[in-house]
Design goal:
By secondary structure, the protein is mainly alpha-helical. The protein is about 65% helix and about 0% strand. The protein has helices spanning about 10-15, 20-35, 35-45, 50-55, 65-75, 75-90.
Length: about 100
């Protein structure tokens, strides 16, 4: 069984609870790890402008891409996918909280 590490940014976001989205989570991880947008984009295999669009919520991330990003960063796929699903639910206007067991 593989254990995924939690970055300090992900731990902080989890402790804070509240509203955050996939883009803000990714930006917090990037900043917490000390990466520039260019460095993070290179790690994720996307362009810097695409990463910027994700962080600013101008572009959405598919669930498969969310899981891929988590694997690449060595973080929890479950958490990345949960946040991506929650963002999709929020965009519909539904007042539903996504919880994964």
């Amino acid at each position: 069984m593989t254990t995924k590490r939690k970055s300090s940014a992900v731990r902080l976001l989890a402790e804070l609870g509240g509203d955050y989205n996939f883009g803000s989570m990714l930006a917090a991880i990037r900043e917490g790890e000390g990466y520039s947008q260019s460095e993070m984009a290179r790690r994720l295999g996307i362009s810097r402008s695409h990463l910027c669009d994700i962080e600013k919520r101008r572009k959405a991330v598919s669930l498969a891409r969310a899981a891929e990003f988590a694997r690449t960063l060595g973080l929890s796929e479950k958490q990345f996918v949960r946040v991506a699903v929650q963002e999709l639910v929020d965009e519909t206007g539904l007042q539903v909280q996504v919880v994964f067991a």
